[in-house]
Amino acid sequence: MARWSEYDTDEERLPEGMQRIGYDADTQTYTFRDVDGAIWESASGNRYGQLRRVNDTTPPSYGEDDESSPTQPLTYAGPEESGDGTSWRQEMMPLLNWFLLVGLFLLVVIWFISRGSKGSTEVVRSCDDDAAPYKIKAGDTCWAVAEAKSVSLDALLENNEGLDCDKLSVGETICVPTA
Fold first, then answer.
1. What is the pLDDT of residue 103?
2. How far apart are CA 112 and CA 69, in angstroms?
3. Of 31, 44, 39, 47, which Cα lies nearest the Cα of 87?
4. Which SMART domains would you find in this protein's record (predicted)?
5. Could you tell me the domains of the chain?
6. How far apart are CA 20 and CA 41, in angstroms?
7. I need a surface site. Which of 9, 24, 155, 159 has the fewest CB within 10 A?
8. 170: pLDDT strictly greater than 80
9. Alpha-carbon distance 163 to 131, whole Å?
10. How many separate helices (H) and strands (E) can be counted in the chain?
11. DSSP per residue over 113-149, as a string?
């Protein structure tokens, strides 16, 4: 069973006095308010976890020589201004799927091209006067051809230099000695 279920409440998951007050569907962030009235935001896509403070409701201290008025609104410094933005890896993540699909497509194309070129390396044999051509059929082996033509396997292999009995292909022509 999972450690947390969907029936857990915010009181069980959040620090004491913290309340969830909103959700932004565009950025997929939850907004929370703590006991002091400060606003906190969750990471994008996470309901709970590490929270970061968005604003602080504590009143600023004003000195006697300070010209600013206490009625100035508090401004939120966005990720671009505060340097707390997302990393380049998170920004480039949607392109990962595209590059994977393109790479997979290229691998399949290269595989088909290389596979097609392997089938065209057929050896054309010209038989001597003392040998007859034989076209390989499905299920033929060197041993079966030698037995059917009453020839020794060694004589068959001598007449066909470079013949690989493990890789006989249908339609290939070999030379079978007649005498």
1. 95
2. 74
3. 44
4. LysM
5. 10-86 (no CATH), 131-177 (3.10.350.10)
6. 9
7. 9
8. yes
9. 15
10. 5, 6
11. HHHHHHHT-PPP----TTEEEEE--TT--HHHHHHHT
Q: Which of 41, 18, 14 is nearest to 4 (CA)?
A: 14
Q: Which H or E element spans position 41? A: strand 39-42
Residue 19 CA to residue 42 CA, distance in Å, equals 12
State the residue for tokens 């890896």. 89
5-42 pLDDT per residue, tens: 665 677 777 778 888 898 888 888 889 898 888 898 88
Q: Output the pLDDT for position 14.
A: 79
Which residue's entry shows tokens 């097609």? Answer: 116
For residues 43 and 87, give the distance between their C-alpha atoms in angstroms, rounded to a whole number: 13
d(CA 83, CA 2): 36
User: What letter represents residue 47's amino acid?
Assistant: R
pLDDT value at position 76?
40
Please report, as a single letter, which amino acid is at residue 25.
A
pLDDT of res. 163: 86
CA dist., res. 34 & res. 20, Å (int): 9
Q: State how far the Cα of 42 lies from the Cα of 22, in Å rounded to an integer.
A: 11
